[in-house]
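Issue: ligand-bound run for NAP - logging full I/O for the record.

Environment: standard queue, default settings, no custom constraints.

Inputs:
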Amino acid sequence: MIVITGASDGVGSELAKIYQDSGEKVVNISRRESKYADVNILQDLREGANIKEAAVTVCDIKDPIKAVVNCVGVFSDEQLGGITEDEIKRLMSTNVKAPILLISELLDRIKQDQSDILNVVSIVGTVPGGHAPVYSTSKWAERGFTLGLQELLKDTPSRVISFCPAGIKTGIFDKVGANVQVDDWMDPKAIALFIKQILDLPKNIEVSEVVIRRKAVK
Ligand SMILES: NC(=O)c1ccc[n+]([C@@H]2O[C@H](COP(=O)([O-])OP(=O)(O)OC[C@H]3O[C@@H](n4cnc5c(N)ncnc54)[C@H](OP(=O)(O)O)[C@@H]3O)[C@@H](O)[C@H]2O)c1
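Outputs:
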């Protein structure tokens, strides 16, 4: 089975659909249901206790975990001079704490099942992201965790992938009222397919990090 955080929407939802269509069991963890998940674990992943509860529910499912894909994430366009403490807490708890704690809680099972881990970070976790300082900082942190995990699991069969795309056409910006035009941005279906292709590679190939840029097409 594949465990996806944030499969109710956007990239995670497209990934859940691709996996479900391929016959794989999909477990989603998010606040709303994913229509493409076989099991929906409805939890707000900002809270540590909820993350632990979600991990226990995942561990109760006996199918081996092929991969854990963290798509959970929120955006912030608060700018320097107007950054609020609440926004820092919202971004750090969702984009950083949730993937760290979930992987930590699932670690024994991940080792047992030789599961892969793919964290959907962002290109702004690889370059300075001054236009979205809180979001970018959270993504640098998520990427730092992912690369550290890669080091920790390097002598195990589990592959750890830091997946860093540029702009994708999803609703993540609208959800915070950010004025971002995404019409010609990358298709989340194409990004989801690429994630599956990376995970489908032979187990002795680890795509440690992938940075995806967006190209203008006339
Ligand atoms: N769109 C882009 O341009 C872009 C570019 C690079 C990287 N990314 C990253 O890609 C990932 C997916 O983004 P997306 O564009 O697909 O966003 P999206 O469509 O808004 O989906 C975000 C997902 O995260 C879940 N989520 C958010 N807060 C949560 C919480 N507190 N508890 C549990 N689940 C929560 C949402 O589920 P619920 O609302 O149901 O809880 C939803 O399923 C994110 O990590 C994002 O930072 C996006």
